[in-house]
Protein 1
Amino acid sequence: MTTLPQHHPLHSTTADSRLIRAYRGDRPEVTPVWFMRQAGRSLPEYRELRTGTDMLDSCLDPALSSEITLQPIRRHGVDAAIFFSDIMVPLLLAGVDVRIESGVGPVIGTPIQTPEAVERLVATDPAVLDEALEPVREGVRRTVAGLAEIGDGSTPLIGFAGAPFTLAAYLVAGRPSKDHLAARTLMRAHPVAWARLTDWCADVTGRFVRAQVDAGASAAQLFDSWAGSLPLDAYVQHVAPASSRALDHVRGLTASDGRPLPLVHFGVGAMELYGAMQLGVDAIGVDWRTPLDVAHARMGGDVTVQGNLDPALLGAPWETIAAAIDEVLRQGSAARAHVFNLGHGVPPETDPTVLTRIVEHVHAA
Amino acid sequence: MTTLPQHHPLHSTTADSRLIRAYRGDRPEVTPVWFMRQAGRSLPEYRELRTGTDMLDSCLDPALSSEITLQPIRRHGVDAAIFFSDIMVPLLLAGVDVRIESGVGPVIGTPIQTPEAVERLVATDPAVLDEALEPVREGVRRTVAGLAEIGDGSTPLIGFAGAPFTLAAYLVAGRPSKDHLAARTLMRAHPVAWARLTDWCADVTGRFVRAQVDAGASAAQLFDSWAGSLPLDAYVQHVAPASSRALDHVRGLTASDGRPLPLVHFGVGAMELYGAMQLGVDAIGVDWRTPLDVAHARMGGDVTVQGNLDPALLGAPWETIAAAIDEVLRQGSAARAHVFNLGHGVPPETDPTVLTRIVEHVHAA
């Protein structure tokens, strides 16, 4: 029944891609590779495009968000696109007073620091997002159309969203903080209000990633930037249920080939948490501090690993980088499959030619 | 030969204290307890005393530093004093342009970002500290004299210093940063310069804690605030040797009772590093994210554990706090001995009456 599009004789579907095969547990002949924050400040073509446009405005401009998402695919030959956006976008669209301050990060106009403030926030029905997310859907549609024109047309787009804990940590502290103590204190002092807050965040961020999948994303990744501030017992009791609820918004969806849409979960500093992060996902991203084989042993399940070259190595001599890549590939062989990545986002100061060379090295390994 | 001081009929020596006995591996009948940052902003009497005086100036005023150090002993009845100072003090005294900015933290006038900058820095002989540290010695002498007047006179003073990696991370980044990427990149890109930098930091911070011991401190703790940003291999290769070198400045010293001075090592976020942190110390402090029994199993040696109540719990209802204390005590029983503490410093917003209640609960357990 499937008819190949006429415009590209080599067209394959994203289901044939190394990335989707690896997420589903195959070991493709070549290890797939992409980089967290590959679309962003390390690329001169990105800096040029973003000049004069606010971060959150860029995310909601479909022409910009799609072009920025495609830039690293053309330049580096990575095996996946990750939709250019910001984890704060769904909060903004739900009516939260949030802006991204240069050199600071997300700043919330009125931090949510009491059970009463939580009640006022969650009075907003997350369904308000369904219409507001249209610029995100349109950005994804344009990206997917653009990807079909690159190479054999099989490069998949990963949709993404911030995890509820990370969103809640920003909402409570009002700005980035070192160890998210304000959020963790609200969690311990007012567990019922905390659950209402993170459930609301789960539905807001879940609708955000669902919109990306509806518009054509081939996989979905939940990012928990701040999970690493939590001990395991607090994570299991006060955070994992909301993360699972966020994933429920894209769980069990069928991809374009009729098979289940692959889901990925990543937490920065999740050293003690890997055993609790599976939550039914296909792949778990590993931070740079835990060797992939060690992290995989903690996961205890049949799951693909993603990661985890230390971004601090990107400034090292090439021989040092190459040896570290080979070690990451060796450690990644402990899992059923491995998607190569950094252990955290690409630093803005990174020389992009190093990233291209890493892709070539992983593909040639 | 020992003559008890005349002024206090109940006088005991610090070697008899619960803290020193626990550090040395005994299990006293009552678990000793103190709090990291117990001297500081959680106490109204501290805020009153500090009004109008800069942080680093306070550290170098013997009357202030000793009084601030004694305040939590009088108020909470904790089993140890920890000398009130700042890990930046020895850098300041070695001539580094450093100040503590309110709401920011340490700021370095000229960050050390190249091998050439490292060479210029390390041209300063750490021996310049020997004279400059006199206000620290005098603060310690006054503190020790004050402690002899409290209770049975046996409360020991813990001397402290920042670990070389933490000092180097500030020197390279110039200010607090989220994951110390600038320092970790210098480490990977220029390992020889990095080793020269951290060796210099080791000798500077080592002389700082040695001065405290010479003036009467009964134990010494090395704090590595940023170790948790490192994977184990980088820690072992590029950080642990300098930490060991810092500890060498106080290793093998005899305490007032003729036995070796107890040494303690603490690293924030050290989840993956416990197996490499022993470095010949008597006790290892554990961060709030790793249960004491889990951390102790990773240490793999005959060592006392210290910690590790989650500071986020300090705002919770008392029943929640009490249950968490009991669980920490249970987990601490896995080691040869346990010194109760928080898993990180006392947050400034803490209600100090909660800390007093925790001391009473631990002592009654």
Protein 2
Amino acid sequence: MHRDRFYTLAASCPDRTGIIARVTGFIAEHKGWVLESSFHADDEAGRYFMRIEVKADSLPFDLAGFCGRFAPIAAELKMDWKISDSAVKKRVVIMVSKQEHCLYDLLARWQSKELDIEIPCVISNHDTFKGFVEWHGIPFHHVPVTPENKPASYAEVQRLFEEARGDTMVLARYMQILSPELCAAHPGKILNIHHSFLPSFVGARPYHQAFQRGVKLIGATCHYVTAELDQGPIIEQDVIRIDHSDSPDDMVRYGKDIEKTVLARGLRYHLEDRVLVHGNKTVVFR
Amino acid sequence: MHRDRFYTLAASCPDRTGIIARVTGFIAEHKGWVLESSFHADDEAGRYFMRIEVKADSLPFDLAGFCGRFAPIAAELKMDWKISDSAVKKRVVIMVSKQEHCLYDLLARWQSKELDIEIPCVISNHDTFKGFVEWHGIPFHHVPVTPENKPASYAEVQRLFEEARGDTMVLARYMQILSPELCAAHPGKILNIHHSFLPSFVGARPYHQAFQRGVKLIGATCHYVTAELDQGPIIEQDVIRIDHSDSPDDMVRYGKDIEKTVLARGLRYHLEDRVLVHGNKTVVFR
Amino acid sequence: MHRDRFYTLAASCPDRTGIIARVTGFIAEHKGWVLESSFHADDEAGRYFMRIEVKADSLPFDLAGFCGRFAPIAAELKMDWKISDSAVKKRVVIMVSKQEHCLYDLLARWQSKELDIEIPCVISNHDTFKGFVEWHGIPFHHVPVTPENKPASYAEVQRLFEEARGDTMVLARYMQILSPELCAAHPGKILNIHHSFLPSFVGARPYHQAFQRGVKLIGATCHYVTAELDQGPIIEQDVIRIDHSDSPDDMVRYGKDIEKTVLARGLRYHLEDRVLVHGNKTVVFR
Amino acid sequence: MHRDRFYTLAASCPDRTGIIARVTGFIAEHKGWVLESSFHADDEAGRYFMRIEVKADSLPFDLAGFCGRFAPIAAELKMDWKISDSAVKKRVVIMVSKQEHCLYDLLARWQSKELDIEIPCVISNHDTFKGFVEWHGIPFHHVPVTPENKPASYAEVQRLFEEARGDTMVLARYMQILSPELCAAHPGKILNIHHSFLPSFVGARPYHQAFQRGVKLIGATCHYVTAELDQGPIIEQDVIRIDHSDSPDDMVRYGKDIEKTVLARGLRYHLEDRVLVHGNKTVVFR
């Protein structure tokens, strides 16, 4: 939690000697003040990951200046990279159905500025939360989804997301499966919270599956959405203890506490550019 | 989570042989169907604790009938006892200051009926959440507290609580210390969430105390309020891992997630009559 | 943890009214002092579970006397029941391969009398721990297992278990799959520790499976062994947090800490007759 | 977990721009391959911390060569630094009294090479574990401690530690308070496991203190020993859930599982030079 404006560089490249020196040397050369830095070598993949926060006003140029000067180094290192500015708020579109817990939780974090984001709109397949969302001064779009209208509905969701200039879409217990086209159009931008400890209990009614199997812990998983259901890269997970006295309804109730916490943590990591995806796995620099 | 109406007997008495048999014998004699039952012998105190849920329509009498017939047995066993009816919603008055997280969390649980209670009013020493609370159709009382007006303010809080026929008062990060009179007037009815793992870091700014001590986990404690600050019987606690990279501000943020969960769990135990106080300790039949 | 001798009744029966009253009434009638008691109604299965500890010297008869007098009640309630005597140590045969952690852990608990059991022998498919086990005064049997000799080997294991009058067999990271015959011969008596959070990652090399999937927590599961691999009733589970920096080898190392704790907890529940199996699920009265 | 030999640099210095670039630039200049690197800025203290692992055979010089070339840079940055060689095993002296759990746990980890250390000797104020330790081929010294002989006893402990050329002394539930002289002679080298979640329950019988206070979680703390009892820098902590049914004896039993895990984790961090002390706090680069 830094009060001063800073730039965040998140990058990965093939591993070799001298990567940190090359990147931090560039920053030091311009008197950049490093607030936080994390590095990781994936030995199996031969790939190097990094995330560096630099105080904006310690540099003699702005973000565009940084990018222009850094680009040749990134090219030399064959880097995938992005850089963000803490002064530019991310725009997060929330998708919700009829369950309160994640929506209330996200809006409380937004109200208190714990999540320092813009929420340009909330989209739902029900109108349950229209009043609640609008009370917060946030536009609410009701986009019903029926077996018949799915392509049109998801086209409308995509249009609204783009119109809102969304950076991130959060499925806050949105109980519909997005179309493969929508998923493919925004890789690494759509986060879901699945109400099981993946890879256990993929698909529908995971708490009932958990009840039948007699597990002693239940969990939740925040992951990026890909075309394959519940198979995207995992960002964050957690579990909670249950026992034989808990019915599926009790599990649903316990699970909500894990779901909202895991979603909020995963979303924060994502928004702070702490998550780097490689294949179907994530590096999360906490 | 039972759909059918039930009565909950919560009781304690000096330990001796035959207690369970005596109590469950009475229930069985009237064909009462026991949904859930828990028993605990405190060997050190020589005291016996129990909680029994009986299906209401399995009995040939109503709650008053139950009480009338059970009273002689309770007297014989020298019991402290109470019995509640699942069809009568508990009335919970929420006290709040300027922090969102516990208030949003409790209202989300109330909206979804996870907490099946009445909230007759919210009282605050600030008017920050007036609009939010009233949007939910709940009366909001602004009772400012200053160093000068404390006795009058707490008298007003007590008047409002009694006017609202409150069963329980929840300090949902209410940042004032209640008067000893108010505490003494409602023993076992006022719940607080303290933002540390008690008995560590009693009093003000516990996260800053934790930061100075360099602990590796921080916690929260839900307890009954007594006249002695942060010393009442503990109902529930939990912790979350931190590390050297976390500032006091980060700890405050992490702590909120624990605070709201611990408060909600403690409140649920309390409302379901799962908490029996003995001296400065609690038996919690989860 | 009771110092006095006690009997433990563990039982289940079809649910109806009056079960607790009938059983505890019998105990009370004979002035039995109940130390601990737990009850559970499985609404879905319509079955009732209980576990009661009675102080031995509070009763006017011995264990045989208890059984004789209780049998008619059990028959009336259509009960599956067993009763054990805390003065009779359970006999636990440990099966091990080449990994230290669970074996050292169990022997430490046995040495300190935390596990108050007899260990009549340790059986292994390797001779790695022969000296260590014998130093503790425990017989060690080396029963090699090869693809060719499996039937003979498992026959020998079964012979040794029976010769040792074993009550319980613990697979303490025993890296062979027992024969279906052996499993079937001792239902509810063979405990395994599986190194994943089941049902995730059944079978071989679960930590490598977990690494490939990119999960953020890994776990361990203590379960009863049945003929179907890793599918038996789960007794206890736990997890530990990992991150992107952990290799499969790191996970193996972290996992050991969970495995030995989960196995020890599951074994304790089993030995104290806290585990009641129903179908493929367990009731665990902690 | 790296199979190749590597050097580990652990250092701290006043914060300024260019520190990472200066240090990693030096490594890159000599073609050093960085396996793992961690950095932390303590804003409050204005101090910078780092830990870097470099593959030994990627460098054109040995450890002495590294030190000689790095010294001027360290001087320029006003660094406190140390560097270790993964090929040189740390020498860990274990102190124990009469409880098994930590001793068995550490020796199991040593046997399996999970802890790749030398244990030159075990020292105890009792002879309980003489046979067990010697069976492992480790010398055992019985140094009784009585109220009268303390100075002489601790002088003997110190002599044995120095004779053994110990790097680290581990108090594995050693139930005596070391002399201030002994503590002062080896700052940052003596690790203790305290059986409470510090700062709660300092001093004797913490589980009984916890029982009296009625806490719902108990914990353990691994910390460096300083002259002030239970006040040294905390390395690692963890907790476990208990409830009203747990006696102080039960808590002792639960606590052991946390104690040995927390001690093993803390010791590992220490041995891998992941712990940097600053004042009474630690940076732990996990």
Protein 3
Amino acid sequence: MAKQEDVKKVVLAYSGGLDTSIILKWLVEEYQCEVVAFSADLGQGEELDHIPEKAKKTGASSCHILDLKEEFTRDFVFPMFRANAIYEGRYFLGTSIARPLISKAQMEIAAKEGADAVSHGATGKGNDQVRFEVSYYHFNPAVKVIAPWREWDLNSRTALEAYAKKHAIPIPTNKKVPWSSDRNLLHISFEGYALEDPWAEAPEEMYTLTVAPEDAPDQPEYIEVEFEKGDAVAINGERLSPANLLAKLNQLGGKHGIGRVDLMENRYVGMKSRGVYETPGGTILEEAHRAVESITMDREVMHLRDSLVPRYAEMIYNGYWFAPERIALQALIDETQKTVNGKARIKLYKGHCRVVGRDSATDSLFNVDFATFEADEVYNQADAEGFIKINALRLRIAAMQRAAKK
Amino acid sequence: MAKQEDVKKVVLAYSGGLDTSIILKWLVEEYQCEVVAFSADLGQGEELDHIPEKAKKTGASSCHILDLKEEFTRDFVFPMFRANAIYEGRYFLGTSIARPLISKAQMEIAAKEGADAVSHGATGKGNDQVRFEVSYYHFNPAVKVIAPWREWDLNSRTALEAYAKKHAIPIPTNKKVPWSSDRNLLHISFEGYALEDPWAEAPEEMYTLTVAPEDAPDQPEYIEVEFEKGDAVAINGERLSPANLLAKLNQLGGKHGIGRVDLMENRYVGMKSRGVYETPGGTILEEAHRAVESITMDREVMHLRDSLVPRYAEMIYNGYWFAPERIALQALIDETQKTVNGKARIKLYKGHCRVVGRDSATDSLFNVDFATFEADEVYNQADAEGFIKINALRLRIAAMQRAAKK
Amino acid sequence: MAKQEDVKKVVLAYSGGLDTSIILKWLVEEYQCEVVAFSADLGQGEELDHIPEKAKKTGASSCHILDLKEEFTRDFVFPMFRANAIYEGRYFLGTSIARPLISKAQMEIAAKEGADAVSHGATGKGNDQVRFEVSYYHFNPAVKVIAPWREWDLNSRTALEAYAKKHAIPIPTNKKVPWSSDRNLLHISFEGYALEDPWAEAPEEMYTLTVAPEDAPDQPEYIEVEFEKGDAVAINGERLSPANLLAKLNQLGGKHGIGRVDLMENRYVGMKSRGVYETPGGTILEEAHRAVESITMDREVMHLRDSLVPRYAEMIYNGYWFAPERIALQALIDETQKTVNGKARIKLYKGHCRVVGRDSATDSLFNVDFATFEADEVYNQADAEGFIKINALRLRIAAMQRAAKK
Amino acid sequence: MAKQEDVKKVVLAYSGGLDTSIILKWLVEEYQCEVVAFSADLGQGEELDHIPEKAKKTGASSCHILDLKEEFTRDFVFPMFRANAIYEGRYFLGTSIARPLISKAQMEIAAKEGADAVSHGATGKGNDQVRFEVSYYHFNPAVKVIAPWREWDLNSRTALEAYAKKHAIPIPTNKKVPWSSDRNLLHISFEGYALEDPWAEAPEEMYTLTVAPEDAPDQPEYIEVEFEKGDAVAINGERLSPANLLAKLNQLGGKHGIGRVDLMENRYVGMKSRGVYETPGGTILEEAHRAVESITMDREVMHLRDSLVPRYAEMIYNGYWFAPERIALQALIDETQKTVNGKARIKLYKGHCRVVGRDSATDSLFNVDFATFEADEVYNQADAEGFIKINALRLRIAAMQRAAKK
């Protein structure tokens, strides 16, 4: 086979599941190359302990396991939440924001291992292949990328299971659910199969991180979230690391059934696709962050920033986290967060959360003590007349012009 | 007095309440001019029947009453909802969108009556004065605007009541609530007094259009909302006029405690201000509209439109509904709505609503029958490789350039 | 060959030159299919008369010739100039705007002829392939597209000439110039070979539509251009059809050496590329159009429109003329042009043009007779104080807040 | 008079000319307060030497003179040119960018002097009053601002001269020109009187910094401008300080008649106004800067930045240089300039300048040596097919949907 000549060593993003196990084996067979497995803990809540054994048994020469939960939250999730980034009005970008970090860690291992190729388990119809590969190329423009789903002929469940059987890869015995999902510390997503009828409600048993609102406590719960420079640092007065804080918000949001979204979204590769998401902690985080911004952020700064968020969210959704335009926009966003210091009080109840109070000891643009100035020095109602007249001038001139035209 | 020479006849936006009654009398006294009262029904839910008598008793030469509920919903609320316009991420612009219509009707009466001045009861610290006056000047650039709150010396409740007593204006005996409010078919707003501590939760007794989520039914309710060219036309299969449809959504949303928002917002006149809003029907309308858009609207059209919505919302908030830039932007927005035909299924429960299904018989970009084309003619997974490689090219070149630099 | 089964009849965008002659023959040979040649006159200034004979001699079953100069100017160039669209600050999009029209006409012929495929002579490294094919798919999503440059192995000049010789295709004997070019009524572009060193000045002999500024008349020339709804309709008082008007401007601009641009631009496919352009008439047109806008267009309308032009220009550059986002944006642009009626006086001299006067008999927002209003009713200098104070309020509050913090 | 109680000491922006001399005297008379004169050298090319004597003779208690040319160029002009900021497509913002620096220096003197008020000579109809005062309030929200033109009754030339005579203020004897002007190191502007007919060409004798293109040398001149991080640092290989570099460019541009603009512009206070500008050095600077960007800046970064420039230019034009939204946007702009290192070769000839070459030894995204990679690893023409097909997918689906609808 020609393939074996191209690649000497490939680093595979490996989850231990059936699909990436088959890919691991397929890479060994097809490329006759060394395969290094790599698994990252981004808070997917699965056991990573036995992964090295599984990987080696399936043919990996070695296996790297990294706990990236703090880096993920601190350097990826939090910068994104400084912008209140939401894709198409609803999606908190939980999967989109994880891919760049996995790619980065994978490329660091590839560099250390001297690998000439990398591989992933994303299909050819989705966004994830773009997010992975655009990031790979950023770190090494000459890297060889192997995307088995675009290459092989194992295009059905049956073909995959036959391949697994043939190569003695264990097939999980637990009941196959009729959807696919992706989970990390920010969210879990669902798509496919049971969700393909856009009119049908998503099945209740699918939800993982949240109870049904109907099953949430009958009493609301109030929490306080504190922010420094736009990043959450404490809940109810307790300072927590980024990952621990997000985990705590997930637990609170999940308990109250908060953060479910059912969305028909537009993929970067051009088709519409239904996604259902649970983002319990992120949903609370956005509500609280906006509340602290509302009392500390200048109006024009907020409006400028907000006008750029659809584009920023699109960059992340499409996979351009490491691209210079995202970094340029982040510079603006981070500049806007210097004064975002304060806290928000949020009411959690039966599937939603709502700010009921906000404050800033250091940066409130509302609390400023106007008493130190005479009222009419700071705001003189008579000024409003001039303000209105000057602002209306162009409209008055246009009205005169229209009248003259008649 | 010099004032009496300036003005012969003034049309006053009159509500029948204490403040505009005092203004009416004050205008008569101060300007020695004829005062025409004008009241519009935009769905504020108050009795307008006795207004003409009250107005005349207080000194008005005549009184015009207009039912504008259908025009309000059809020509103001609905065009705005085609854009999913929300100010500062939370406010559905319920008061902002009403002011231009009141101004328009008032100026039509002024033209008919041959009045040379108009007046309103908005204070000198708020947004409404701008919204009224900018609109007035659009219709008549030479109109004389009288804003009593910016002119007179009745700057305390006591002074006002003394003036009322002196002029035999009846002072309402019902308990004065510690907030001010503005209501129409789209929403009710609250501000001032009890809400001035931004950390304190708004009092439950204030809410008018919605039950507390805790008191909402324990069972969720599902409804279907149908859209044509971006406008809602039917609920649960029943076609309704715009105003009746919005009233119906209000009743449904109110029953389930939907649409409460507590916001620290930025006024156009430069200060921050806390507003609490109930927009029960509008909240459902936005959720449903976005859902129908999600299945019928092109991705790039949506992203372009969404990037302009903060600016569009700002125009409306600031009072520029009749300005040419709003009209230019509306042309874009309306163009995007031609395909927004379909229906959404919404779940209402305990204070929030969430789309659970969406469909379009005529314009779905998801339902298209791909079967008429060979799968790989429409989407060939191998194409994704080229797509990614070309999109990554600039990033690869930059990476090579960085490497060469070292 | 498998290929012959796929395609029965292909419509080729045919210029009569060597490359598309070889493509014609190659299509016949390779696909064993009927080839219909199509040539459009967009003002490229070449003889189209003998094209049908040449096409048939080279193997075409038939040949369609269309004069599209008026449609090109009226429905493509003019709508684009309503926006003052310029790519990357310098390029007037002369080639970009021609491709969609060629594609449209080609697809109409394909429909009429019952062809199942279309083909073009654009290479795999440029923008034109995208512009052609994106437009093809818009008109027929199932059309088969054949891009020979991406398919064949004739990848050198030698291979091409060998192929031509073998198939008795006449090779032009005129000296081969060291650049490639594309010309139509709006411009001529140059790229490649002699231009590949970005530091070296483009050779003077390359320029086609313009004299060297040094060779232009020593006396300036003044012209007047008149506009209706944003479109030029007359020069020096003489009404002209769109194509004739643009031709006249080209003649004037060319005579004075106007409209040369030397640009390092970013292609849609990801690499930088140097392009040199001559757009004599278009350069004058933009200067004149902006001048008429400057006296007739509202400030906020202009600023809103201008902020969208980079995106609009990008859409056209990338090939999305027929895409719904371009059409939505055009709706906004066209709405802004309703008042753009008037004329501009332009000075042409030695390589550049500059507005020296502008006027509008019907829509000037400058000429309005302020005399009909008392000066201080329309503009009262005292109003400016209120205007400034209110606008500065947020900055004053922020300054107080900073001071309090210290 | 009440006035004398309000103000103890005022710092006046003083030019030594008739108007600010009258203001100086008027302040002393009207407010019975101490007046400190302040003059800044921003390159207006006038003698500042005798200003202290004149100021004191007219009544000033003291006079501060500052040479701000380097600070002006380095911290105001250059940051603005990093964005290629141009207002309404034509105006290089030469006056707008000077006002914030004058205000800053004036407020520093006010702080040092313990002054409670500041004053300036800008009228109530223009932009400058806003630029001054918004900046004043940024530095001291409690400062008293005195704008004599909005306050006094000296509203005619005759009244002014009478006042001058009465107070023994010398009236300049040189012929009064029929326009007003403002000059600094970046530009000179003209407005009023002779320019009020928008159709009439501006008089040749008005121009100050540039020769008429007709009088410029018959031979073109080529220059090289070098940039580091987006700022010009050298001309023809000679490193120069910012102010010296700009002065040198002015001299070169002026000699060749470069940088004249005749514009009908929209003032912030709502009316249209004609301005004529000479920006010889700035015009060359922008051409050169764009050229270096074109070879060093990523496409998406450029397009993002360009889409924000109209808003950025508007901020500066309106006077919001010190506002947080300008600073946030500057953070983005500066981030984009890190790679803008290189040089441009510019041809100067008879009224215009044009880039003819550009290069970057360190950051070219064009010069990258593709030879280190196999050609088809970096760019494979076959990839373009996938790129196009995926990009066209949404348009194909829409076309199928339209077809199905029929």
